[in-house]
Amino acid sequence: MRESVSHWPTFQWPGSFHWPSSLRARLFLILFAGLAVAYGLSFSILFAERYMSAKAVMLGTLESDLATSIAVIDRLPANERADWLDRLSRGNYQLVLGPGLPGVPDMSGRGAEIAERIEEAAGNRFPLRVEAIPGDGKRLQAHLTLSDGSPLTIDVTPRGVMPLAEWLPYVFAAQMLLLVLCTWLAVRQAVRPLGTLAAAADALDPKRKSSPLSETGPSEVADAARAFNAMRERIAHYLEERVQILAAISHDLQTPITRMRLRADMAEDTPEKTKLIGDLREIERLVQDGIAYARSSHGSGEKAARIDLASFIDSIAYDYQDMGKAVAVAGLVHGTALTRPHALRRILTNFIDNALKFAGAAEISVERRGAGSIAILVLDRGPGIPDDKLHAAMQPFFRLESSRNRDTGGTGLGLAIAQQLAAVIGGEARIYNRPGGGLVAEISLP
Hints:
The chain has helices spanning 23-75, 81-88, 110-122, 168-202, 219-266, 271-298, 309-322, 341-359, 390-393, 414-424, and strands spanning 93-97, 128-132, 140-145, 151-156, 305-308, 326-329, 336-339, 361-368, 374-379, 428-433, 439-445. The chain is α+β, with helices and mostly antiparallel strands. Among the domains are: 219-279, no CATH class; 299-445, Heat Shock Protein 90 (2-Layer Sandwich), CATH 3.30.565.10. The chain has a 5-stranded mixed sheet. The chain has a 4-stranded antiparallel sheet with strand order 1-4-3-2. A two-stranded antiparallel ribbon has the order 5-7. The longest helix has 53 residues, at 23-75. The two termini are 51 Å apart.
């Protein structure tokens, strides 16, 4: 078990309770459970208060009605009492002349309260005995003797103190639905900024210009959005500084390299001179690629123009064919595209140079994708790249140690430059292995 850094005691939920994995579900569960318990307590308190009030009214009414009924029956002549029994009876008790049914004196709860009220209604004038009738639920009988010695039985059948209305369960269900809705809205309002922030962080790419995160809403959300926007600007600034340093170093190296080339050209022809000139050319190519990489991160200020894809692709292929390179166009190419032509040409030439370097031949293909997008593919039948290194191959100065290494030439910036230029023109560059062997370099245009 992981040791906690804090020394505060940790709360363990009883049993095998497991929290939901999402914050939204956890907040919903906590808020809904708390509000439901609070609502249940409030409803229970109101119900209990109403029950006690109704019971007090019922017992008070029972006592006053019985006192009146007993007094009237006691004053009536014996031969007229039977005619008045129904008139003096009520819904929760009946007056019966005679000893009634045998019962048991053991009573508790509401029966004891009713017996106490019957005794108070009878007063001290009549001998009274209250019994519970076995097998009849809550039925009670009070046996008393009137002034002339005649027995009188009060048969009490208590009714519900507070009957529930038929519509009450529907109201309760509607209230619970409203509680669920309000809880969901509250949780959604609280969690939605986190989802927006997570999406912005996931899509964070300082190389692409995008609108800043909205800084509206509650103060905490606005503070987090401002902090995120500031962080993105700092990252973009650090990347820009890195590229500027690379561009400055590459630019400043051109002068000493040129002087070294001049001195080497003036030297006597020796094997060392040939090797030195070769090294200088490699350094010069590295410097030029560094400058190109720095420029590609900012774009060239080129304006977008609509091009005919067939003519554009053919012109690139013909240029390589004129130099004796095996570059062909596969399939039919048609349609137009709105893009930056020079930047797109540089991307495709980098892809083609890469294919020629490692495969000796390249094919150019154009595919139509969904939502009107266009994908231009450069395919080769070279050794390919291991799948776990495809992403790294797009990073600057990356070289594989196997077939695609320094011995084949290059500085490891060709694909990185293509990726940066793709971002500048609003597209996306990627590479993946070709079925049957080889590599596919793809630039997709919106």
